[in-house]
Fold this sequence. Notes:
This protein has helices spanning 13-24, 42-52, 71-81, 100-107, 123-132, 155-162, 181-186, 200-210, 236-247, and strands at 3-9, 32-37, 59-63, 86-91, 94-96, 112-116, 119-120, 165-166, 176-180, 214-218, 224-226.
Amino acid sequence: MNCSLIITTYNWPEALELVLSSVMMQTTFPNEVIIADDGSDQGTKNVIEKFSDDSLFPIIHSWQKDKGFRLSKSRNKSIALAKYEYIVVIDGDMLLHKDFIKDHKKLAKKNTYIQGSRVLLQREYTNKVLKENFFSKPSFFSNASKNKGNLIRFPFLSFFVSLNSSQNLNRIRGCNFSLFRDDIIRVNGFNEEFTTWGKEDSEFVQRLFNCGISRRNLKFSGIQYHLFHKEGFSSNNNVELLNIAINQKLKFCKVGIDKYFQD
């Protein structure tokens, strides 16, 4: 099965460089990488060009003008560009375990949304990694990370955990998920009415649920390490958009990915 890896980013080239380094170390490569760039400056472009020169697979820079938070639009444009049937999505501050792509592909299934988790790196360790431009997997016994259970990779146990499917929005994370491209297109991708941070991932997944798509959790595999930064808060408008999708059982958003296929 072929897959496209989508990496979202905005003006943090130091983090993106580490992320791309971790992609280059994968035991199973994606067939292409698409950088979903929400308006970064030249620094991000320089990083992408640096890795493109020696990469064994295409690295595509999908850039749009900086007009504020437009993550949904950036994701939609990148997914529309994707050439392959399976889509893996991460954020540009998520460093990948060497078997990350392998683990996602192993669990892939039609009509299924795969939700992964993340290891939260502490501030001091993140600063050290960024300063040295080098990342090594933190020890379980160190103070480098929180939620240490997510450091454990145990594929045999992961398989049995993933057998339980559900339709709940608990701990939906847009930084670590995968599904078939056709399933994304079925719900018209991400809702571009979201123009501030928060709940855009949950609203997207709710529409998947409304179409009968189930959720499987990827635990003890598909590991990624989240560089520390402060997180935002969802606006009331974003919560309202999510509630509309829930209460009206929406399967399709009005402003989504379909317009990128019209030309």
